[in-house]
Design brief:
The chain is α/β, with parallel strands linked by helices and about 475 residues long. The protein contains 19 helices and 16 strands. It has 4 domains: about 120 residues, Response regulator (Rossmann fold, 3-Layer(aba) Sandwich), CATH 3.40.50; about 170 residues, P-loop containing nucleotide triphosphate hydrolases (Rossmann fold, 3-Layer(aba) Sandwich); about 70 residues, Helicase, Ruva Protein, domain 3, CATH 1.10.8; about 40 residues, Orthogonal Bundle (Arc Repressor Mutant, subunit A), CATH 1.10.10.
């Protein structure tokens, strides 16, 4: 993993002292800019990105405490209010330094401190800032975290996936994970992160199909400055910033529109980006993993997915096979989830009898690992027995004889255009549901995220929908 040089803004009117301190810090791995006045410092902070600010208290125009107050209040539209700030003061100004910390400064150091102490304090301020940003995101992650943290299974397919994870984890290569919904693509992405040198950094994910508006998607990816659009009242860090030093998973990458694909392609190639409405260029220091349940090769052939973007994200492909292709894993998975939910619900269930396992293995599991996990949870909730039998399996809806599915239409001899058929079905469902997307998704048996992606794909509009600007 590459280590990015931290950029520091030193606000100090004593230029001899400032240049001496700057040289010493550059020898320790910092990159320093000097602002001799408070006004120039605010201008620099509004036009450039800094990892850390060190400011003197006594300045000829705007003193250090006022600079900290302005930055931390969020009143300066183009300045990142979360940038860590350290006060530089003389021994006699410690009381003022404490006041500066009340305004939001992370620490203070005296001008009389020796170089090792200054370096240690500055690095500590940087580390504290990084941890604060990670913790903010982890609070969101905890609510959505899966209850299983490893890839379960002993089939040849699972062993092959684990070997591929081990091969790619040591590099920073972009990975494309493909597989059906519920097959475990996110588990593979997390396993790559845990096995890499970035394991101590954050794991950040974004479902590209969950955001119906492209501007909202770009805002989630890159963040935005205050005033970038109507509802942008504060500065917001995007997923690329939150993932600095770690891994960014872009799920459902096939649902990106061509313009968003182009923006992402530039970021991957240049390793730089800017927030929406911002002029500062920020460096990208994260591993990028993409995932999709679609056939991107077909999407490229049909012109729905950019060929150059496909080749750029397809550096190291990993296919996660559906559960019906690795039936050897079904008993292992079922036992794993059964024991997991037995602990959660304080039930005695610990295993299956032979007939029950036979029913489980005979089923095709179209919802893959996610479906078998949910089914095992249902079993645990409904039983007080230690061993799950075939009777309970059937009672929970598995093993029943199902009528053969019939098509609700006849395919004409000359064929039909699948994309147009899909669009007609979505529009028909929306009309039947009075343009309520959630109800339309239920009528079609698909997720709201999926119908949102189709609405965005075909540019569907209705007066009852609020348009994001």
């Amino acid at each position: 993993m590459s280590v990015r040089t931290p950029t520091l803004l030193l606000i100090e009117d004593d230029l001899d002292f400032a240049e001496r301190l700057s040289r010493n810090l550059e020898l320790e791995g910092f990159r320093c800019d000097i602002a001799p006045t408070g006004r120039e410092a605010l201008e620099r902070l509004g036009s450039q990105y800094y990892d850390l600010v060190v400011t003197d208290i006594r300045m000829p125009d705007i003193d250090g405490v006022e600079i900290i107050r302005r930055v931390k209040s969020g009143g300066e539209a183009k300045i990142d209010s979360e940038v860590p700030m350290v006060v530089l003061t003389s021994v006699n100004d410690v009381r003022t330094a404490v006041e500066a910390m009340r305004c939001g400064a992370a620490d203070y150091i005296t001008k009389e401190s020796d170089k090792p102490e200054i370096v240690v304090r500055l690095r500590r301020a940087l580390e504290q800032s990084r941890l604060i940003n990670e913790n903010r995101h982890l609070k969101d992650q905890l609510a959505r975290a899966t209850e299983f943290a490893e890839i379960v299974g002993e089939s040849q397919a699972v062993h092959a996936i684990k070997e591929e994870i081990a091969n790619v984890a040591a590099s920073d290569a972009t990975v494309l994970i493909t597989g059906e919904t519920g097959a475990g693509k996110e588990l593979v992405a997390r396993a790559i992160h845990r096995a890499s040198s970035r394991r101590d950094g954050p794991f950040v994910d974004l479902n590209c199909a969950a955001l119906p508006d492209e501007n909202l998607l770009l805002s989630e990816l890159f963040g935005h400055e205050r005033g970038a659009f109507t509802d942008a009242r504060t500065l917001k860090r995007g997923r690329f910033e939150l993932a600095q030093g770690g891994t960014l998973l872009l799920d459902e990458i096939s649902d990106l529109l061509p313009n968003a694909q182009g923006n992402l392609l530039r970021v991957i190639e240049t390793r730089q980006f800017s927030r929406l409405g911002g002029l500062r260029t920020l460096d990208v220091d994260c591993r990028i993993i993409c995932a999709t349940n679609a056939d991107l090769t077909e999407a490229v052939a049909r012109g729905r997915f950019r060929e150059d973007f496909f080749y750029r994200i397809n550096v190291f492909p990993i296919r996660v096979p559906p559960l019906r292709e690795r039936t050897d894993d079904i008993p292992t998975l079922a036992g794993y989830f059964l024991r997991q939910f037995a602990v959660k619900y304080r039930r005695p269930a610990v295993g299956f009898d032979d007939e029950a396992l036979g029913l489980l293995c005979a089923y095709s599991w179209p919802g893959n690992v996610r479906e078998i996990r949910n089914f095992c949870e249902r079993l645990v909730i409904r039983t007080r027995k230690e061993v799950v039998d075939a009777e309970l399996i059937r009672a929970c809806g598995l093993g029943e004889t199902q009528p053969a599915p019939t098509l609700p239409m006849t395919i004409p001899d000359h064929g039909l255009h699948f994309d147009q058929l899909e669009k007609d079905l979505v529009v028909a469902a929306l009309e039947k549901a009075n343009w309520n997307q959630k109800r339309a998704a239920e009528l079609l048996g698909i997720s709201v995220d999926r119908i949102n992606s189709r609405v965005r794909k075909w540019g569907l509009r209705h007066p009852s929908w609020r348009v994001h600007r």
